[in-house]
């Protein structure tokens, strides 16, 4: 990230691409790439992942993954367990290759069960409210009295309203 910022600062001062490449010890193609792109951080993504050791075991690994997904959650193997099963089948490659392949394979598969979704509730003003009664004891003119408290909360603004009544059967004024 610092390299990209330095390349842009030096270029803004009027320094040539060749001079920038020489001073920062990077290739001219790298300097040109960072000047043309709007990137602020270097990013590398491999276009094609060769799998020389895994190529003969892809079908076996995919079978292990799908079989593993059908098991109950407590009996499922993690990536290391799947890697161990593949090693038992004769695989000579490394764990990272298997881990990356499993991750990409799972991303390509459609979800097998229901997908949990969160739908936020939104309300228009005065569309809905929540209401409840509560009993409270108060001192009214020196006498301890039980009263009924009406609690209402508007769903749109979350604004609370509280009113005190001697009993719940009394009509509330509008």
TrEMBL record:
Signal sequence segment: none
Cell inner membrane in keyword set: no
Domain HTH IS21-type: 2-65
Keywords attached to this entry: DNA recombination, DNA-binding, Plasmid, Transposition
Regions annotated as coiled coil: none
GO biological process: transposition
Keyword Secreted found: no
GO molecular function list: DNA binding; DNA strand exchange activity
Family annotation (InterPro entries): Homeodomain-like_sf (IPR009057), HTH_IS21_transposase_type (IPR017894), Resolvase_HTH_dom (IPR006120)
UniProt similarity note: Belongs to the transposase IS21/IS408/IS1162 family.
Record's protein name: Helix-turn-helix domain-containing protein
